[in-house]
Amino acid sequence: SQQGEEDPQALSIQEGENATMNCSYKTSINNLQWYRQNSGRGLVHLILIRSNEREKHSGRLRVTLDTSKKSSSLLITASRAADTASYFCATAFKAAGNKLTFGGGTRVLVKP
Amino acid sequence: DAGITQSPRYKITETGRQVTLMCHQTWSHSYMFWYRQDLGHGLRLIYYSAAADITDKGEVPDGYVVSRSKTENFPLTLESATRSQTSVYFCASSDPTLYEQYFGPGTRLTVT
Prior knowledge:
By secondary structure, chain A is mostly beta strands. Helices cover 0% and strands 57% of the residues of chain A.
């Protein structure tokens, strides 16, 4: 399977702390995306990083991409209780058009 | 209302019955997708469509049928529901040049 692997599967932190989660994949990508899913809801797109980019920021989110290691990380700084959700990486493989392959997700619990 | 909607939101059906899940988007995105989400498997792609009248199989297409006669609609049919098709189903759409996908709220399907 080309599915990305996420690590850790679950993460529990205090409000104000940073949360870091990682994603690894197996084949060459066009881009990698991160999504958030609140309990019982659909996924919401957070950020996209292209294969020729190494780092990208959006508000309190920082994403890095290391194509040589086939891995990405998502950092959420100064976490809030509202950041409690599951976070998924999704990879768009070359020659796969707009199809995405999702990882299993990281469940993040931010305790107030 | 602008966006992507799914209906019904909840459905209980019996084994062997035909069930159709509806998906409608108002952005005129050419790409549409159907995923199922199960504990332990993340999101898996069932079928996708690059444009009206163009559909293709994803990772887990067996037991499902799709059609796309209009750009805005992408119904998913379970021809003869089985218990293993109990899941949460998400529809998504995307613009071919932007890659990010927009998800509907999901349909929780239970097959008894």
